[in-house]
């Protein structure tokens, strides 16, 4: 559970950053004249929370194979897309009647998801390299 919380915590902040960038880009493209109050700062925090929820639903005792990882990723992105689009269609201040807005949000969610996987991979790669360096030093000193 401690590992899942750490993973969720790291993913949350990655998502907040990427979602903030996505909202800025989509907003500048489709609604650049609008100004927001400070409540607008809550939306990336809330959307990132939704993006972290699937981390807790998929727990496996054994390591997954490549096919299982892909299936899990597809299920996760479908859950996230459905949750966010449900919010989009029920939010009065998001122009969900414009198909280009809905498509850009859906594509943006997919891009954010993929980028979050890439960033997590980079973090894990750096961590693995550090561990290998420590192990090599330990073996030399034995």
Overview of the structural elements:
The protein has 142 residues and is an all-alpha fold. 80% of the residues lie in helices and 0% in strands. The chain has 4 helices and no strands. Helix 1 crosses helix 2, helix 1 runs antiparallel to helix 4 and helix 3 runs antiparallel to helix 4. It starts with a helix and ends with a helix.
Strand content: under 5%
Total of helices: 4
* Uncertain segments: none
Average pLDDT taken over every residue: 85
Radius of gyration: 19 Å
Order of helices and strands: HHHH
Q: In total, how many beta strands?
A: 0
Look at the helices and sheets and give the structural class.
mainly alpha
Distance between the termini: 33 Å
* Sheet of most strands: none
What is the 3D shape? elongated
What is this structure's SSE topology?
Layout: H1 2-30, H2 42-57, H3 66-90, H4 99-141
Helix pairs in contact: 1-2, 1-4, 2-3, 3-4
In short:
This protein is 80% helix and 0% strand. The protein is mainly alpha-helical and 142 residues long.
Which structural traits does this protein have?
142 residues; mainly alpha; 4 helices; elongated
